[in-house]
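Researcher: Please translate sequence to structure tokens.
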Amino acid sequence: MSAQLRPAPSRTDGPFRRLARPWVSPGVFDFWASRLHPTWSWERPLARIVERRAESADAVTLVLHPNRHWGGSRPGQHLNLSAEIDGVRVTRSYSPTGLPGRDGRIAITVKAVADGKLSRHLCQQARVGDVLELGPAFGEMTLDPAAADVPRLFLAAGSGITPLIALTRDLAARGMPAPLTLLYWARLREQLCFVDELRGYAAAHPHFVVRFLLTGEAASAADEGQGRIDAALLAASVADPAQRQVYACGPGGFVDQARELLAAQARSFQAEAFSPPPRSLETQGTVQLTLAASGRSLTVARGQSLLSALEAQGIKPASGCRMGICNTCACGKRSGSTLHLHTGDVQHEPVSALRLCVNSATSDLVLDL
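Model: Translation complete:
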């Protein structure tokens, strides 16, 4: 993954907070303030759910009203979102799908994942009035303001549509200043999100083309197609890839295939994967993982992400996006070798930083945990 944007700066203290800070514990303030208003806090960015609506057969859109401590985001970025579930704070990364509004409200679209504790909670249990905690915006898959007239190609698979719908909405609000083609994959038609909106953009803007590509059922509409991403499908959909800025988002295997097909010939290529691609990894045997701060020594399997390996043994490091973008789970490595699950790169450097969610051990390791 590419280098990260710095989080938006926090807002400066007001006169009251500057005077009260030596005398008031933020935790105590938050406890009593929440009795007066659910999103009042000393400095924590909180947001109340003010609307929920079904977006597809397995996804919902939640509209959130943040408090004044949240610094905002740009279309295409992500944020970490936290909720308390069964007494445990669970954090995952989501991409705001709506454009920033004057009222400060944001929208996130969440697909229920079978083993996704937070996604199932948001899709099935979260209700209007519930309060969630927000992290600062991060991510680099944003529009280049200096390239407003450059043609673009968006490739989305499954939940990968969420940052790309935000970018599409941004471009539509500007009148679609350059040609844009969006290819959007899902297994079934009922799993597609934003279909009517995207068709509306296609009808209103000659520069915009959308194709819905199904991998689990037959195409029927004129703007639908079938099949997984490959060279023939791309050639039939886009005649000028060398002129295009390409943005791809989806599962790791999808992003890997898009990169292989387009990165060398496109004008530019940006991608984000929300799961590691399938790779032939060394999974035989185990290694010793030493946690320097606590003095613990663990046995973990090769080929498993360090974050998953630690969680399996009851250790819960701070984490967020779980796809190598937000940097929440980054920690120092004192010695040993690791393999990046997205890129396949092996890192032997003895003193370095790594993201636990996208790295596995290839030798005995010592981590600053």
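Researcher: Any highlights?
Model: Residues 161-173 form the longest helix (13 residues).
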